[in-house]
Specification:
Elements lengths: L5 H10 L8 H5 L16 E6 L1 H4 L2 E4 L20 H9 L3 E4 L8 H4 L2 E2 L5 E2 L12 E5 L7 H5 L36 H5 L6 H23 L4 E5 L18 H25 L2 E3 L19 E2 L3 E3 L2 E4 L3 E2 L1 H17 L4
Parallel strand pairs: 1-3, 1-6, 6-7, 7-8
Antiparallel strand pairs: 2-11, 4-5, 9-12, 10-11
C-alpha cells in the first residue's frame, strides 16, 4: 500500500552493505513456490498491476536495490515479489511488472510521480491485446487506508490526548498531518460524529476498482484477470511496542482491513475479475508474530529474508505466500 521511501533509501544505502546480505540464491530458501512442481495452465504474456503490496516493496536486500527492469527504482519493487515468482514458476516467457509503491487506480491510466524524481508510466500501458494473464492488487491507497493508519501510531499503549480536539483532514491522510501525531485514539478520531470515515472511503473506492477491471478487459480481451486481495498482516489485537498501536485502535484497523478486502471481492465480481484470496491462507502470520513467522514487518528490517523493507508491508516470506496463493488458485481453476 502507500509507501514513502525517499529519505529511507538514502539512509539505508549508508547503513547496510550489500555484501552483508544473502546472495540471490540464498533468498529463495524454503517455501519458495519455485521449489515445487506445478500443473497449471500455460501463459505467454503476463502483466502485473498494483500497489506496494504487489510490488512487495523493499529498499535493500540480497539482490541490492529495488528492481528497475520494469519500473523506476523509487517504486521500490522487489526482485522477488509475487508476480516474478509466479512468472518464474509457470515459465511465462514475457512478464511486464508495473507494480509500484503508493499506486492507486488513478495510476493505471496516468503516470505516477515518485519520491526520488522518477515516473512510472501508466500501468495500463503494459497491457496488450495478446496479454493472457493479469494480476491486480489495488484499492488500499484509493481508500486512504495506509495513510489513515498512521493516525493510530501511539508513543504509549493508551491514547494520550483527546483526538476529537484535532481537526479532521481529508482522506487519504498526508504523512505529516495533525492526524499522525503519535498519540493514538484513531478509532475515536475516524468515527467522530457517528460516521466511520474510513468505511465510507472504502465503499466509495469500489467503483474505481470495478472500472479498472472492466478497462483491463477492454485492453486485453483474452486475458485471465486475477484480483489479488491483501494478505493477513493486521492482528485483531495490538502488540505495543512491537507495533506501536493501542489494542482498541488495532481492533479498529483489523475491522477496517476486513472491509477493505470485502470491497476488493465485490469489485472483482462486478468488474468480471477472478478473486485470488491471499488473506485466508496467511492467517496467523500477522505483524505481531515472531520474526520468522510474520509475513509483514512492523518496522522494515527483516530476517525473513535479510532485507530492509518498508514498514507495514509484506516481507519475502509474505511474497512467497502471495505467490503460492496465486499458483494454487491457477492449479484449481483451469479455464479451457
Amino acid at each position: 500500500m502507500r509507501t514513502r521511501i525517499a529519505v529511507a533509501v538514502a539512509v539505508v544505502a549508508g547503513l547496510v552493505s550489500i555484501s552483508s546480505l544473502p546472495s540471490p540464491a540464498a533468498v529463495a530458501g524454503e517455501g519458495d513456490p519455485a521449489a515445487t512442481s506445478v500443473t497449471a495452465p500455460r501463459f505467454e504474456e503476463y502483466v502485473a498491476l498494483g500497489d506496494s503490496w504487489s510490488a512487495d516493496v523493499v529498499l535493500l536486500d540480497g539482490h541490492g536495490f529495488p528492481d528497475t527492469t520494469h519500473v523506476p527504482v523509487d517504486c521500490a519493487q522487489s526482485h522477488v515479489n509475487y508476480p516474478k515468482l509466479v512468472a518464474r514458476e509457470l515459465g511465462i516467457p514475457v512478464i511486464r511488472d508495473a507494480t509500484c509503491g503508493s499506486a492507486t487506480t488513478e495510476h493505471f491510466a496516468a503516470p505516477q510521480s515518485l519520491p526520488l524524481g522518477g515516473t512510472n508510466p501508466p500501468q495500463y500501458d503494459r497491457l496488450t491485446a495478446t496479454t493472457d494473464l493479469v494480476t491486480v492488487g489495488i484499492g488500499g491507497n484509493d481508500a486512504g487506508f495506509a495513510g489513515a493508519a498512521l493516525a493510530c501510531i501511539s508513543l504509549l499503549p493508551i491514547e494520550t490526548i483527546p483526538m476529537d480536539l484535532l481537526p479532521l483532514p481529508d482522506l487519504p491522510v498526508p504523512l505529516f498531518s495533525t492526524s499522525t501525531l503519535p498519540v493514538g485514539g484513531c478509532k475515536k478520531y475516524f468515527t467522530a460524529g457517528g460516521v466511520d470515515r474510513l468505511a465510507v472511503a472504502i465503499a466509495e473506492s469500489e467503483i474505481k476498482l470495478v472500472r479498472a477491471f472492466r478497462r483491463i478487459r477492454q485492453l486485453s480481451p483474452d486475458a485471465r484477470i486475477l484480483a489479488v486481495n491483501y494478505l493477513a498482516a493486521v492482528p485483531q489485537r495490538g502488540c505495543w511496542p512491537l507495533v506501536p498501536v493501542t489494542d482498541r485502535d488495532m481492533t479498529y484497523l483489523y475491522d477496517t482491513f476486513q472491509k477493505l478486502n470485502a470491497m476488493v471481492a465485490r469489485a472483482a465480481r462486478r468488474g468480471g475479475a477472478e478473486l485470488v484470496d491471499t488473506y485466508t491462507p496467511t492467517i496467523g502470520h500477522h505483524m505481531c508474530k515472531g520474526p520468522k513467522v510474520r509475513y509483514a514487518e512492523a518496522y522494515g528490517p527483516s530476517v525473513n529474508d535479510l532485507a530492509i523493507g518498508v514498514p507495514a508491508h509484506p516481507n519475502s516470506a509474505g511474497a512467497r505466500a502471495q505467490a503460492r496463493a496465486v499458483l494454487d488458485y491457477l492449479r484449481s481453476s483451469v479455464v479451457e
